[in-house]
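Methods — Computational structure assignment.
A single polypeptide chain was analysed. Its primary sequence is given first, followed by the predicted tertiary structure written as structure tokens.
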Amino acid sequence: MAKLIGYIIFGISMLCWALILVVPFLGFSAGKIAGITTGLVIAGEITFYLSIFLIGKEFLVKMKNMFRRSKSKQESTKPEIQE
């Protein structure tokens, strides 16, 4: 049950981060946009770490490996410079 709640909270975290991209187009003043964006960043971070706590360390390791693989694929496609 804790893992299910963790996955739901992780989805909420991703939603917070996605909403950051939408906020500037909603017609708020610059001050309100800054405040809403700050709130979304804080909420996204808190919910992300809470979800990692509930889901477990295996999920965090899996995510790290996923990003390392994509980074290594990008580095392998760069042309090598010959001196």
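Note: Helices lie at 2-22, 30-55, 57-77.
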